[in-house]
Amino acid sequence: MKRLITLSRRDPELPPFSAEFAGRRRRVLDLPLIAWLTVIWVLLWSTLTWANLITGVVVAVFVSLAFPLPRVDLGLRLHPWGILVLAAYVLYDMYASGVKVTRQTFTRRPHRPAVIAVPLRCRSDLMLTATAVSVSNAPGGSVIEVRRATGTLFLHVLDADRPAALDAARRSVWRLERLTVRAFGTSDEIKRVAKEPPVREQDDDAGEET
Asked: Which of 46, 57, 121, 186 shows the smallest number of beta carbons within 10 Å?
């Protein structure tokens, strides 16, 4: 028997925090939009009562069904366990990178910074942006450019004295990409980051000193 109402957590094809009504025509309700319209309705009446709250929900549902917005799927999926793992790793990475940068600051040995190119496995705008933000949170490396056409991040690193340090920086970006996709990506993107990172070209850009 087909369900009368299907929530997004039961159907991965639906946008996050939405509900679908069964019928001849597919009708999808955006639950955050319903909540926001209800809040506006209550504010217009200036009184929080059960009558105003229920009436606001009914009006919000009616408006959403009568004047549906075009469906825009940003490719965002929320995975609670993945979000928790990503948050824990980002906090750890911020601490570890901060300690490393502090040590580099107080050592007398000069360091050679560089800009390296890191090709990513997911090229959607959302995942490129989320990965770039996650990488930029940690001291010692910052994203200076995102090349959308090739899905490449250009990362400024402080310690480029050894090739091993450059490889470690790339592996750190790929690790953050994998954790970010597992927290917010679609099932296809999660399968994509499970594969080996793309083979990088010779480090012509890795040797660019800043």
From this structure: 46
User: Which pair of structure tokens corresponds to residue 148?
Assistant: 């959308």
Strand order in the sheet with 5-7: 5-7, 18-21, 27-30
- How do residues 136-176 score in pLDDT, each as one tens digit? 887 777 888 899 888 899 998 877 777 888 888 899 999 99
Q: Reduce the secondary structure of 21-83 to three states and give it as a string.
A: ECCCCCEEEEHHHHHHHHHHHHHHHCCCCHHHHHHHHHHHHHHHHHCCCCCCCCCCCCCHHHH
How many Å apart are CA 157 and CA 209, to the nearest integer? 10
| DSSP structure class, residue 15 | P
**Helices 50-66 and 31-45 sit at what angle, rounded to 10 degrees?**
130
Q: How far apart are CA 35 and CA 37, in angstroms?
A: 6
Q: Beta-carbon neighbour count of residue 146 at 10 Å? A: 16
Counting Cα atoms < 13 Å in the Cβ hemisphere of 149 gives 0
Is the pTM value of this prediction over 0.90? no
**Structural tokens at position 191:** 């399968």
> Kind of pairing, strands 114-119 and 152-157?
antiparallel
